[in-house]
Design goal:
alpha/beta, 26 helices, ten-stranded mixed β-sheet
Length: 768
Amino acid sequence: MSQTQLQALFDYPKYWAECYGTAPFLPMSRKEMDVLGWDSCDIIIVTGDAYVDHPSFGMAIIGRMLESQGFRVGIIAQPDWKSKDAFTQLGQPNLFFGVTAGNMDSMINRYTAERRMRHDDAYTPNDEGGKRPDRAVTAYTQRCKEAYKGVPVIIGGIEASLRRIAHYDYWSDKVRQSVLFDSKADLLVYGNAERPLIEIAHRIAHGEDVKKITNVRGSAFLSKQALPGWKGIDSRDIDRPGKIDPIANPYEEITPETCSDNESLSVNDDSNDITKTAQVISISEHAYTRNKTWAKKAKPWENTYINLPTFEQVKENKVMYAHASRIFHQEVNPTSAKPLVQSHGSRIIWLNPPATPLTTEEMDGVFGLPYQRVPHPSYGKAKIPAYDMIKTSINIMRGCFGGCTFCSITEHEGRIIQSRSHESIIAEIEDIKVKVPGFTGVISDLGGPTANMYQLNCKSEKAEATCRKPSCVWPTICGHLDTDHTPTIELYRKARKVKGIKKVLIASGVRYDLAIQDPEYVKELATHHVGGYLKIAPEHTEEGPLNNMMKPGMGSYNKFKEMFDHYSKLAGKKQYLIPYFISAHPGTTDRDMVNLALWLKENNFKLDQVQNFYPSPLANATTLYHTELNSLRNITSKNLAKEDGAITVPKGAIQRRLHKAILRYHDSNNWAEIRAALTKMGLSKLIGSAPNCLVPRETRSEQQNTRNNQGKNNAKGYKTSPGTNKTNNRKPKSANKGLTRFSDNQFKDGTTSKRKPKKANVQNRNKG
């Protein structure tokens, strides 16, 4: 299929099975298929989540989108992966299987940050654990292949998306190859995959061999060599890594001679078809629709792909892994990104550029499909916690330009904000009133990846089309970024006026460094949309960790808090901010954690739960964790020689538990551990009963217990005492007086807090 113009989602000619109409629920059994009059399914979606027909669940969105194209779509939810039998319950699909692990990576879903297995699963009826396998995409794909040989399998969702190239895997503590190699799937689609998957479905339906579908944006596939008609460039020519041991050029074997500059294209019909379709990837019409004049300009990167270091290289060499990560994160702009190629042994993975973002009209169409907004009837009265949490919330946008290194939203959804219209969102509120059982008139959230990036985009067409910055708001807010919150304010006001709506809450996700750019938004938020508590995420107080998170300094937090308190008081309300914090993030020293704990004590915050850093695949912070190199900068010999070339990374159960314990300084179960660490850091002045102390001295009963346990494990049951690594053993430059933080309260953005903050008589209910 060769085309020269971007096809809108709902402009494809409908598949012949459109005559069957819309299913009340996508069928999960043969009996349901019989009721619908189906003899077979065209496409079967296999998912690790329970089937909830709601636009917050991936299988529902993809299933309803494919149904809108005229395909008969069935669902196999949480099948028994130990045999192929469960994968045959709907029969053989006419076109392909679509496989997803669900709304979460299966390893994150099944294991805690300490690698302990969870005994619950919010995406399963009655919160039951163990209903999905480890690495679910691979397990499900293999069973689909076993059940029906020759039927194409297309993988997608968050797990496939974040494992599309070689990646560090926290649970096995090693670099794993692309999930395409492990699963043996035919194609991978990444991101919110409506556009690529619909194109692929129609092409397969028209008889095209899945192995020849090589030009779809937002997809990846395996090959023996690079596509004809494309020129490869070495990633090291773009971002040269530091000095490493000499290695052979890994790219000669994967660049076919037919790709040389002076070689003409093959006259073979099949090769020529591949060449024509491959070139569609880089046609100017694929530019983001907002950049209308940009589509007509010359683009020297067209028909050029980037050779990444091989899987074997990044597996063995951390400098090359950090370098590959930098290149990957630079090539995320849907307008100008180039394909990425990575060799795994004798084969390569070809990663096409991201799909063109959805327009507002397309977003409205996706969220306006006939969702029932409830779980499938087969679950009866069983509770599905993830559904209960979001059943009255509304997703108003996609994407995030924040670039926080610990977050995978950018790697999955991209940086371009894709927003729905006011009319579409109001229509969904009306739909909730009718369809959600027991609706009380409260909309629990109007948000998305962030609450207040709705309709915010780059003001410069040229900058947006070529930008490779990882964040639009760090280290400062880009001058090209539109920070006008007027569309969001107007949306809130319209939502409040809907008949039968008592309250519209903004539960979380407020980017406070953006909010303070528009005081009217903060006023609207505090006056009408906070139910007593507002969750925000400063994540840390210290400059080192914040820089490695790409988060703003506490000066922005303080300014937002001042504005929030001011407008809450004007509205006659007592409202509080509930801050989230991360412990053990790469770049965080033990002393950083102590300073954060002192800030918490000074502001009377007592954290109920703390989230230890969780290295998710492909995230920038995961690269920092694995390599212990500052990959946020060029990986050059010059930078590696500097102090910040290598970073401190809290690793191992003992140090990670210590960082978590310090944030819960008020918990007596942690005092022995904290005392040992403070003593080792030379901060024993923080042990005592004075107001400026972090933890009390050891009591007589504790001393007796310590003597009784001498020669055994320490007070926390660890084999060795918790302490600091070598970089943390230096004495402080000045004595700690009172609760003065060791950085003298100097914030990253240059502001200094001189006013003693007011104490909030509320405990943090952070759920991590």
